[in-house]
Protein 1
Amino acid sequence: MIGTVNDGWRAAVTMLGHERVSIGTSMAPRSDPLAFGSLLESARRAGNSTDPAVRAKLTELYVRQQELRLLTVRMRQEAFAGKPIGARGSVAKLVGAVVANHSADVAGSVAGPDAVGWLPDDQAAAELTTGIVGAPGIGIAGGTNEIQRNIIGERVLGLPKEPQVDRDVPFRDLKVGTQRTN
């Protein structure tokens, strides 16, 4: 048992908070196949690095990844200074997930056919595709993007909670989905 009896929800929420901060503030290394530098190199290999549409997508990606990097730096500085991150970790987690999905979209545009099929010895194309396929999972880990938006609205922005008519009903008694009413 961790903590006290019947205090598991608080422990779970604390763990999820740490997970969200970790997911949101873990900056991708330059060797990450979805990092700007890697995708610029992929565009050069594919021969489309001078295409204005590709350059615009890469530019937007660079800006978004820099925004995430700066948010990460700020949150780490605050954590080292002893300021609790709290629900603001959901901001970092949401931004990280959005940037990851955007990176995957750009990667698909940049890589072209290499994002679908590649030669067995083309390790760069295999890693790129693994990054593309894995990116949506970041929007689920630590709580979905929708959950993060609710947390941000309620705990960061102070907006009212959504109505919950079933708040005090045990899960086993909920009448939703395919449950039968007998």
Protein 2
Amino acid sequence: MTSPRFPEQQLTDLDGRVAVVTGGSRGMGKEMVKAFARCGADVVIASRKIENCEALAAEVTAETGRKALPVACHVGDWGQCDALTDTVYGEFGRCDILVNNAGMSPLYGSLEEVSEALYQKVMQVNLQGPFRLSATFGSRMAIGDGGAIINISSTAASSASPQEAAYGAAKAGVQSLTRSFAREYAPKVRVNCIQPGPFRTDIADAWSTEMIDNLERSVPLGIGEAHQVVGAALYLASDASAYTTGAVIKIDGGAVYPCA
């Protein structure tokens, strides 16, 4: 494929590429899937509920004409991560963009009430999955035409909170993995991370009115909308970020948490 001459053109040119998005059937994942397809990529929509993936795949193909492959995958399962990789390469023979977006942050009463099973589930989905998928996809990208891996973290990685202790620890691990994989698969594979703040996705349905009011007051730009992840995602997925790797890009509406 031939990239456009100018960086501003590269930003929205994904023609001929294949993008895989985990947690891709809803929220920020859905918005990234649709944006990649609008920019010319074929897309793989991976999440646990195949019916949601199928519905979005049909919508994407109807709107853009791009191929959209729905795949059921629970990223907390090591074997299902391997199966996703094999499915993508079996169908397309390549992967140019991987977005490790799937995540979970369940509510709990107190830290003492967090069970071993809940703790392990949070770690498996938020940290183990990105590790395994970055390894299986990244290694193939590195011996092929290269590519871009985008990890989705959270400001919970930098802003310690008892309400998100395990989740925040897992997301801090994701940011560390980003730097490790960036070194391992350079120069052909770029590995970067987006650190979102509060976004109004289906996860926000569990937020209390008090929490929402507090966020709207304390975050200069308020609560984000899912589509507002697209700019950062396109930058990191495209050749516009050809000299960017190991980076954590904070998109949090102006919250003061550092990208630690």
Protein 3
Amino acid sequence: MQAQCIINCAVTGSIHVPSQTPYLPITPQQIADEAVGAAAAGAATVHLHARQPDSGQPTMNPDLFREFCQDISARCEAVICITTGGAPTMSIEERMTAVQQFQPELASVNMGSINFGIYPQLERIKEFRHDWEAPYLDGTRDLVFKNTFQDQERVFAIMADSGTRPELECYDVGHIYNTAYWADKGVLQPPLWIQFILGIHGAIQPSVRNLLFMKETADSLFGNDYLWSVLAAGRHEFGLGTVGAVLGGSVRVGLEDNLYLRKGELARSNAEMVAKIKRLVDELGIQTAGPREARRLLQLKGKDQTRF
């Protein structure tokens, strides 16, 4: 079992659109402020995407990543994790740009191709603020989020050259076996840092049984050579996150994955979400890791070795 629970905050992501909530951080200043607030509330790591400041549309513009990553790094000690998932509509070349340029301590990598359907959100939006939002969501009816073995190999090579530890995003059980393939090849070195993701339309769905299935599969493949976290999308975020912490894992929360603090109440900030999950795990007597402990557990290179 992990000695401590790492709280990871996914600050904005690329799944939700601005019309769904007024609290989604969009500009570099908003993203930086939200990340720093999440760190102050107890997040040891922050998972970052960029958005166009004028419209909120997902982007991999390195100038935007530079702006908020530098700001966050100057203002707090949280571990910065940059996405290579970007958005399901982006090419792998676009998605690798920021990691290649800034060489962060952590970066996410998706461990398999899946149908990635975010179009059901259309049913819950009465009025759109921007012209891009409806076509963006609706386009995922006929979309495969491409993450082939060749794509993964290219991302892992960039991370190896950069000294960046991969955060291995597993949306289904087959992705855990894909991870084992790369570990057996010697491409991935322990401790593996695996995110079990439940609740994306097109992948494994959120339940305690499915979480246990994923954990038991990883246990059988990796033994003590991995650490893990649970990301449960939407209303399952806090419940399954708490189950994961009880089972000895870590937990991810944030406005990328869920917009509500509780039923019917929009979260006003990422810090609120971090504070809630920290309160839950604290009440259960589970120790949470700070940034220093997270760096030690994950064997990270240190933020002084990044290019922010």
